[in-house]
Design brief:
The complex is a heterodimer of chains A (747) and B (434). With 747 residues, chain A is mainly α. Helix content of chain A is 64%, strand content 6%. In chain A, 40% of the residues are buried. In chain B, the strands form five sheets. A nine-stranded mixed beta sheet of chain B has the order 11-13-9-8-23-21-16-19-18, with no helix packed on it. Classes of the chains: A mainly alpha (747), B alpha+beta (434). Chain A: Residues 578-601 are annotated as: Disordered.
Chain lengths: 747, 434
């Protein structure tokens, strides 16, 4: 599993490199190999040894390494304690902090005593940087052995540290206690703590403020007076520039409503504007949870946002998930005043060809939903649906027919007046499966009310044998049978045909079965069959797919969490803690090697070249110490009059050992001539160029004066996108070269 | 809290994974690849998989993902991701990409370790972070008792966003008021939607700990000053007409309590550039342009279009890079366009006539007419999407917001050079129905 050659090469490099800057480079290579997914666990002992450095940069990287491979090297871990302990005594608070944070992150049972001792010291440290790290380390200690933290000095100490001047220490103490005491319901939120935290609220970072607000939301104020105080104090923070803070304040406000029911409307009014502003001012990702919260509030108080409908109109540039939620909100806030505005907007989305099919169907469903809420306007809805059907665009017809059917189920009497006369025409223009099914259902249920009803059905029966859709066949069977009982003379023949076709000439078992079933029913007792087929249907007013109202009440309690986004109470989506964690860990090992799609050879090459490249530099330039660390700073300077023959170029192009692809974007579009000009100005030599459709293709090369390296490259430019393919013999140089080209072109 | 932060590219290769809490495993990250990257439909930015939530944002060719097992506040996670991106931009430049991440592995890890501890966000102010992050040899050479002391002071200081002891020989403040218009106008010129989203961006190079006070022509403030007497005096003089701000948010440094009591915006600014405030105005906003569209369908195969654009702002001003996009039916074959000013051509990809005018002087009237020939055949409905405009007008605000004064108080500063600029922008969000 481990790439032994890579390990060996690293180990050798570690031992050989005495100079600090060189060691640092080696360790950097180890970390990047680790990130690529190479298992470097066998280097553990070497790395622990290397940790005794005074260079903080190296130390940070080594500690990162130790944390990553500690699990696999339990027996060697004890070696590292010496280093950790020594670093915890360091003069530099950064080193003390780093050591404490890394050691506690190991969360290792063997080290628990050392950990506890250093944490206790850390809590008393003179640097607040170290103290704040120590505070969070207590949680890690708690995870390893709860008894060392719960009901001990540490717990008491943490409570007292909430009062510390340093805002980070204070906030971290709050979160630490909250986690440690999670089983007891979290930190005990006393009036004293709340007052203390709110008094210095402005000192905290946004993250800290969000955490404090989380506590305040769970706090039950003692009196109405106190409620109002909190309300007034936090009101300012609805103007915070941070979405998280605004939503957290909103949650506190909503919770306070329980204590101040008479202020309910005013409170919602306060949070309305900030939320609307957030939607328009944040990025798409952020707007999404905000809109979900607005939706939730809208389910409780539809009128709150009723005058703001236009803010939830969708934009063509919105991603689909924002469009969906905006439409959902529009459905909730619709009322008699804004009805026309909203329906008009939704209808225009349906026919707007720049929106995708999914959204136009979604809008049609929304229109149907609105009809079910505002029954007095159903005729306008039906008009729209009929218009959509005439557009003859498959997905629109499909969705519209389904909704038309649902509207008829809701308001049969009124809507049939409008729809029935149109049925014949509809039957001629409808082609898609679901739409046909809906139409056939309407015909079966209400078709007898118009003269031509049975004949429209008959048309469908005529093509029954050619019909490939099982759904249509089944629906047709049922509808014809219904029609038979209502208009027997006209339907008798049709029923005979369809039963024959279904039982004798069908391939679908369900169709055959249904046909046989009906046939036997009729032949057993025709009157009973009639009463079964035409049984009375219950009237209904609400579709089951509409969400239950209780759900939203639960969600209001879980305001400002993922529950609102998922529209599910936490209970429903939290997962029970894994039963077989060990299994998962095994998987872990496998996949970490699976997912790393590197070739060992390549990597080894790369590492060696990276480090060897350094040697070359060292030879070439004696004062190169700085350059080792920051190779990017190396300047490329090209020889002005360097020239290659085309054949030489081709030869080098074909035979270069290294290849590098690099994509970047330009600030503005340029034409071919200006590209060549820029390249020439910077001493690149253009070998060939051409225009293929709208893509500019340029072959170019250049020679660096200081390193004598030659680089070849090809540019493919489409608009502002540039694909660069560079070739050469030294990867290190190639990288610099590519970056140089990119900077030349982008500047 | 946040269990881990990942950087994953489009192909599902993990560039960086930093796991802070051991409640998730590396193998679980594959779920992100399966459920988000491999999913055919574009999913929303919050994805739930077996009790774990992935929140992600795309940047160029890769994703930055926060993973959590807890039921936490989604806005906080996204704010945090945005902050990470801002910090990275500060370190790696505006256009950081996969390659920058790869070449700076260890710095990325260093940053990810300082800004978050055990899943809880810590210091995210770039200025303060610089004290903890030790790139190159800087620390070894410069490390002195002084800087160690600084860390303690800095992290404790109530003013977390500003370093102490800054010194500039020339003290300067730049204020940019940038307004983004989101207008929808009916074809008769009536407002259907008039949202102005403004930002006040301040860039300062000031010594010491300056107290700044910013005065705007905000109606509530002016009313308060004059005891409500001036409310009925409309349009007194250009800059002093009070405006009604619907909603405003401020940077952390603005003392909100002061704003609440006397509507004054006072603050100690962070060094360099920051967004001081953002606001929204919807009432009494001015249209920079009047657009008169005439679209007539002549028979089944021709549409006549005539669009007149009149600039309503003062003749001393001008709009830069104005682009008017006039939609045509989807079955457009060709457009015969005539106009005296600017360049115009038909772009079949977006089904629009694109008319661009480099410099649009104030109080000017330009028009374009076109004959649009359609492809005969399948007749589909044309939804008549609105005309949209792009433009940038320097020294103009649609809301009428003006800076009345900017005071800087700091002992060590004798003179401050102040610059105030106004900019009104639309990126296709100024729309006119046809």
């Amino acid at each position: 599993m481990s790439s032994s050659r890579v390990i060996k090469s690293f180990r050798q490099l570690l031992n050989e490199s005495k100079e600090q800057s060189r060691r640092r480079l080696v360790i950097e290579q180890i970390i990047s190999a680790m990130s690529l997914g190479v298992n470097l666990s066998p280097l553990f002992a070497d790395m622990v040894k290397a940790a005794q450095t005074t260079d903080l940069v190296q130390k940070k990287m080594i500690y990162l390494y130790i944390c990553k491979y500690a699990e696999e090297n339990k027996e060697l871990l004890i070696l590292s304690t010496g280093t950790f302990q020594r670093d915890c005594q360091s003069q530099d608070p950064l080193v003390r902090g780093l050591s404490l944070r890394s050691m506690s992150s190991l969360m290792n049972k063997e080290l628990v005593e050392y950990m506890a001792r250093e944490i206790k010291k850390g809590l008393m440290d003179r640097s607040n940087y170290v103290r704040r790290i120590a505070v969070l380390a207590t949680v890690k200690l708690f995870r390893v052995s709860p008894e060392l933290v719960l009901d001990t000095e540490i717990e008491k100490k943490l409570y007292s540290m909430i009062a510390e001047v340093d805002p980070y220490v204070s906030i971290n103490s709050v979160v630490a206690l909250n986690e440690i005491l999670a089983s007891k319901g979290g930190i005990s939120i006393t009036q004293k703590i709340i007052i203390h935290l709110l008094k210095r609220f402005h000192e905290f970072t946004h993250w800290g403020q969000s955490i404090v607000l989380g506590l305040v939301a769970n706090y039950a104020p003692q009196s109405e007076q106190e409620c109002l105080q909190i309300l007034n104090l936090l009101d300012n923070y609805l103007k915070s520039g941070n979405t998280s803070v605004i939503l957290s304040v909103s949650k506190v406000f909503i919770n306070l409503i329980n204590d101040l029911p008479n202020l309910r409307n005013q409170i919602y009014d306060r949070i309305k504007n900030p939320l609307i502003t957030l939607v328009s001012c944040s990025g798409d990702e952020m707007a999404y949870p905000v809109l979900k919260h607005i939706y939730l509030i809208a389910t409780q108080l539809p009128n709150l946002f009723a005058n703001e409908a236009s803010r939830f109109f969708i934009k063509g540039s919105d991603p689909t998930y924002l469009q969906e939620i905006k439409i959902d909100i529009l459905c909730e806030i619709v009322n008699k005043q804004n009805f026309k505005q909203i329906i008009f907007a939704l209808a225009s989305y349906v026919i707007n060809s720049s929106l995708n099919e999914h959204i136009s169907s979604y809008c049609i469903r929304a229109i149907g939903k609105i009809a079910s809420q505002l029954s007095s306007y159903f005729d306008m809805v039906i008009d729209y649906l009929m218009e959509f059907i005439e557009l003859d665009i498959p997905h629109i017809v499909e969705a519209s027919m389904i909704i038309l059917k649902d509207v008829i189920r809701l308001f049969p009497e009124q809507s049939l007046e409008i729809v029935l006369p149109e049925l014949k025409r509809l039957s001629e223009i409808i082609h898609t499966e679901e739409a046909k099914v809906s139409l056939i259902w309407i015909l079966g249920e209400y078709g007898e009310k118009i003269d031509e009803g049975p004949y429209i059905l008959e048309k469908f029966v005529e093509t029954f044998s050619e019909e490939s859709s099982e759904k249509i066949k089944l629906e047709l069977l049922t509808s014809v049978l219904k029609m038979f009982f209502k208009r027997p003379p006209e339907s008798k023949k049709m029923l005979g045909v369809i039963l024959h076709e279904a039982t004798e000439n069908s391939n679908e078992p369900d169709v055959i079965d249904r046909g046989l079933f009906y046939y036997r029913l009729i032949s057993t007792d025709i009157n009973k069959t009639k009463s079964i087929v035409l049984s009375e249907k219950e009237n209904f007013t609400r579709f089951t797919e509409n969400d239950p109202l209780e759900l939203f009440e639960i969600l209001m309690d879980e305001f400002n969490t993922f529950s609102v986004v998922y529209k599910k109470p936490y209970e429903q989506f939290k997962r029970i803690i894994h039963k077989n964690e060990e299994e998962e860990e095994e998987e872990d090992d496998d996949s970490s090697t699976d997912s790393s799609s590197f070739s060992e050879e390549e990597l080894l090459d790369q590492i060696q070249q990276n480090v060897n490249g350094l040697d070359i530099n060292q030879q070439n330039q004696s004062q190169s110490q700085n350059q080792q660390n920051s190779q990017e700073e190396q300047e490329i300077e090209l020889e002005p009059k360097f020239n290659l023959e085309p054949s030489e170029f081709q030869n080098k192009w074909m035979n270069s050992s290294h290849n590098l692809n690099f994509d970047f974007e330009l600030d503005e579009e340029l034409d071919k001539e200006s590209f060549e000009e820029i390249l020439k100005e910077n001493n690149f030599q253009v070998m060939a160029s051409g225009l293929i459709q709208s893509t500019i293709k340029i072959f170019c090369y250049g020679k660096d004066i200081s390193s004598n390296q030659i680089g070849l490259f090809q540019l493919l430019i489409t608009g502002v996108n540039v694909k660069l393919n560079a070739k050469g013999t030294n990867p290190q140089f190639l990288k610099l070269f590519a970056e140089y080209i990119a900077t030349v072109l982008t500047e | 809290m946040i269990s881990g932060i990942l950087f994953i590219n489009e192909l599902g290769k993990v560039l960086i994974s930093r796991i802070y809490r051991q409640d998730i495993t590396i193998s679980f990250i594959d779920q992100f690849k399966i459920k988000v990257l491999a999913a055919k439909k574009t999913t929303n930015p919050i994805k739930h998989v077996e009790g774990t939530t992935f929140c992600f944002r795309r940047i160029g060719s890769f994703f930055i993902v926060a993973v959590t097992k807890k039921n936490i506040n989604a806005a906080l996670v996204f704010e945090f991701l945005n902050t990470i991106i801002e910090i990275f931009k500060g370190y790696f430049g505006e256009k950081f990409n996969e390659n920058t991440i790869r070449t700076n592995f260890s710095l990325v890890y260093e940053l990810l370790d300082e800004i978050i501890d055990f899943g809880y966000p810590q210091t995210t102010e770039t200025d303060i972070l610089k004290l903890y992050i030790t790139r190159e040899n800087q620390r070894q050479t410069k490390k002195s008792k002084e800087s160690v002391k600084q860390i303690s002071i800095k992290a404790t200081g109530v003013i977390g966003w500003r370093q102490e002891g800054l010194k500039y020989s020339r003290n300067e403040v730049f204020l940019d008021i940038v307004e983004n218009l989101h207008f929808l106008v009916s074809n008769s010129g009536k407002f259907l939607k008039s949202d102005v989203f403004g930002e006040i961006i301040m860039k300062s190079r000031l010594s010491g700990m300056p107290d700044c006070k910013l005065g705007l022509n905000d109606k509530v403030l002016l009313d308060k000053r004059s005891g409500g007497k001036r409310t009925k005096m409309k349009n007194t003089r250009g800059g002093n007409t009070p405006i009604v701000i619907d909603d405003v948010t401020f940077h952390q440094c603005v003392k909100l309590s002061k704003f609440d009591t006397d509507r004054s915006i006072s603050f100690v600014p962070p060094d360099g550039e920051f967004q001081c405030a953002s606001y929204r105005v919807t009432e009494n906003v001015k249209k920079p342009f009047k657009v008169i569209p005439i679209v007539k369908e002549r028979g089944a195969i021709t549409v006549d279009v005539k669009v007149t654009v009149i600039s309503l702002f003062s003749e001393n001003l001008f709009a830069k890079n104005t682009v008017v996009r006039i939609p045509t039916p989807p079955n457009t074959a060709e457009c015969v366009i005539t106009t005296q000013t600017g360049k115009a051509k038909y772009d079949p990809q977006i089904n629009c006539i694109v008319w661009s005018i480099k410099r649009f002087q104030g109080k000017e009237e330009l028009s374009l007419s076109a004959e649009v020939n359609l492809i005969r055949g399948k007749q589909s409905v044309w939804s008549r999407p609105p005309i949209s405009l792009d433009f940038t007008i320097p020294s103009y605000t649609s809301s009428g917001l003006r800076v009345r004064y900017l005071k800087v108080v700091e002992k060590s500063i004798t003179e401050v050079v102040k610059w105030v600029r106004y900019l009104c922008v639309s990126k296709g969000t100024f729309q006119v129905r046809i």
